[in-house]
Write a structure and sequence with these properties.
This protein is mostly beta strands. It is built from four helices and 28 strands. The protein starts with a helix and ends with a strand.
Amino acid sequence: MKMRKFLWSMVVMLAGAGTLTSCLSDNDDDNTDRTYPVLVSNGAYVVCGGNFRNDIDGSLTYYDYTTKTASQRAFQAANGRGLGLTANDALVYGTKMYIVVDGEHTVEVVNAKTLKSIKQIKMTELMGTEKGAHPRHITCANGMIYVSTYGASKSYGADWSVPTEGNGYVAAIDTLNFGLKDTYEVGSFPEGLAAYGSRLYVCNSDYSACTKASISIIDLEQKKVVDTYTNENIVNPTKIGVAGSGLYVLDMGNYNDKPSAVWNINGYGNCVKLFNASFVTFYDRFIYAVNAPWGAEKHDYLQYDITTGSTTHFTQDGVFSPNAIAVDANGHVFVASYRKNEDTGYANYSGNGYVAEYDLTGAKVGEFDCGVGPNAIVFNTSIVNMKY
């Protein structure tokens, strides 16, 4: 089976990548100060989707670690214009930040420190209307960004009985001139994607229709889709990570009798359920997750160690209605949430949300307001020299 061969080669490659080598001097008797570079986080950017139904534009909130202040509509303040409807994802890569805006069919390219616009990529102009419509998620590798788009995918009927039609795409975009390098046709309604080595893995969600869900495997050297993985257990994949024992996929289930969960597809093609989860992020050897099924009174905040297979609760102190999770370079966990609508008792989907911050011990160390519909968090980082 081709899929097993691809996954096994990936695991072998990852095993070699996990070895770290120290190159310190043999002479440890001198008193010379030595330094080593460390990546640290200085602030958090919160991508807020807004509310499409109520015509509320997306926005970007910036939280400064030093001043402990949150600046609302930071993109608008820097550029004199808003992001538009349904800001969906973001990525900091090198000196630039890329913000994916589904409703405007754009990817905003800004200076990662100042937020000043460098380029607004119109995906429908770059790829054509049938391929570039509705950009969803983004990843990076080797001087390129990769953006998934719904493109020609068509949804099912109101009664959910009609299967989805058409396929989505992935655009490979050069980060120097923002030109389109390659276009890949993937599966139905692609969402999250992850690059590792010469492979790009793409979650084809099928828009929760649960009829054509799959994972496309793109060989970036051959510049083509080389395989498509399907499994009856994975019906609505939306996020994917690559680690030492294979692929880790967040499957959102069918919102009815199949709960959302994280599955491990290992090197032999086996698909194993790890735990129920609604939102995940991948950090070092860990998966951080929030399990917040609709209507649940209690949420679980989980840390899964992929090297040991152990799952713990990283905190017992949660938020009202979680909608995103991320971990910064300092190891702090950030969870974004809707606020409670005091009139209905449910989440307020048209009002500003908030973000809670937890330290390495799981203690809540801060909270700040953000815009409407927080759905992604990325970080302002820098390299500092530490003494040893």
